[in-house]
């Protein structure tokens, strides 16, 4: 009975937090300084979160895995809802923070809803730029790392160059890139590619250099060609390090994307954040930051799932 009561209380915590949020929203008077929205968008978001959680709890009666997931995440979700309730209290019920820089949650969520199509266009624009730059950087970085790690003669000449230009912050290349490339788009692609190139190169070469020479010697003794050694020994053995390089490159590419889009672009999430800041609309700034955080987190989650699928023997070694 005690265990059942404990489980019931744990499942009830998020809904108690939602009730607290509603009471704070309606029972405590507003400060009168925040812009009044047409709908209580913040509460709509909380209600949707509660509905999704309730559906998961009902599904838990049929699938234990879902039940265990909800049981584990219930306190975290409760804390998140309580944090939002506190944030709503501070921004809409008090004057503790400057209204200009700290808009209400209704304004932020409402902007995400009301400008969803415009935001979607900017997200697609950012993704197009990001994917092109990422692919260039990842491919060139992989080939460079492969050459550095496998061929000592190539490594003798390329390694010093890589060590000199690789650690230079990507943003330091912005003035030069804008001068060399005929278009801003080309310069931005180069900068994102550069941000991805160095970590992929470094981790790929390190992974290959960490392979025991015995593996290559045995392969050569059995008559394996250079191509066979690269495809069947070097690359598979270095794959964990290659994925690490891709992860580091992904994070760097997002940081670079924000920097380049704030520097002469006419679309994209980075441009949107910069534009909203210039017109003193900080609800748009926070909305853009939320979108960037969600997109980056989703991208890394997909990459980790891909890694676990490819590197089955290392599944769960690195968690996200």
Walk me through what this model shows.
There is one protein chain. This protein has 320 residues and is mostly helical. Helices cover 79% and strands 0% of the residues. The chain has 12 helices and no strands. The longest helix has 36 residues, at 226-261.
In a few lines, what is going on in this structure?
The chain is an all-alpha fold. It is built from 12 helices and no strands. The chain starts with a helix and ends in a 10-residue tail after the last helix.
Keywords:
12 helices, 79% helix, 320 residues, mainly alpha, MetI-like fold, flat
What is the molecular shape?
Answer: flat
How many domains, as an integer? Answer: 2
Q: What is the CATH architecture assignment of the largest domain?
A: Orthogonal Bundle
Number of strands: 0
The N- to C-terminal Cα distance equals: 35 Å
CATH topology of the largest domain: MetI-like fold
Query: pLDDT average, as an integer?
Result: 87
Q: What Rg is obtained from the alpha carbons, in whole angstroms?
A: 25 Å
How does the major sheet shape up?
Answer: none
Q: List unreliable stretches of 5+ residues.
A: none
The number of helical elements comes to 12
Helix content: over 70%
Name the beta content range.
under 5%
CATH homology superfamily name of the largest domain? MetI-like
The CATH class assignment of the largest domain is: Mainly Alpha
């Amino acid at each position: 009975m005690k265990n059942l009561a404990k489980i019931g209380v744990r499942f009830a915590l998020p809904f108690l937090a939602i009730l607290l949020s509603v009471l704070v929203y309606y029972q405590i008077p507003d400060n009168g300084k925040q812009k009044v929205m047409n709908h209580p968008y913040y509460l709509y978001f909380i209600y949707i979160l509660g509905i999704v959680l309730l559906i998961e709890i009902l599904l838990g009666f049929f699938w234990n895995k879902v039940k265990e997931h909800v049981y584990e995440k219930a306190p975290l979700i409760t804390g998140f809802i309580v944090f939002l309730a506190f944030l709503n209290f501070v921004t809409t019920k008090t004057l503790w923070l400057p209204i200009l820089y700290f808009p209400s949650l209704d304004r932020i969520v409402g902007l995400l809803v009301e400008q969803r199509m415009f935001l979607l266009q900017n997200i697609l624009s950012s993704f197009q730029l990001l994917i092109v730059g990422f692919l260039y950087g990842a491919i060139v970085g992989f080939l460079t790392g492969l050459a550095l790690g496998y061929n000592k003669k190539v490594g003798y000449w390329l390694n010093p160059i890589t060590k000199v230009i690789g650690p230079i912050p990507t943003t330091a290349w912005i003035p030069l890139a804008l001068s060399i490339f005929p278009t801003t788009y080309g310069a931005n692609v180069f900068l994102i590619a550069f941000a991805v190139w160095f970590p992929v190169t470094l981790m790929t070469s390190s992974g290959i250099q960490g392979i025991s020479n015995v593996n290559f010697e045995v392969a050569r003794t059995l008559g394996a060609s250079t191509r066979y050694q690269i495809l069947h020994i070097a690359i598979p053995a270095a794959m964990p390090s290659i994925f690490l390089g891709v992860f580091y490159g992904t994070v760097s590419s997002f940081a670079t994307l924000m920097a380049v889009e704030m520097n002469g672009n006419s679309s994209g999430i980075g441009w949107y954040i910069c534009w909203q800041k210039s017109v003193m609309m900080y609800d748009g700034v926070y909305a853009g930051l939320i979108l960037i955080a969600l997109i980056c987190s989703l991208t890394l989650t997909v990459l980790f799932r891909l890694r676990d699928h490819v590197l089955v023997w290392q599944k769960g070694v690195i968690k996200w």
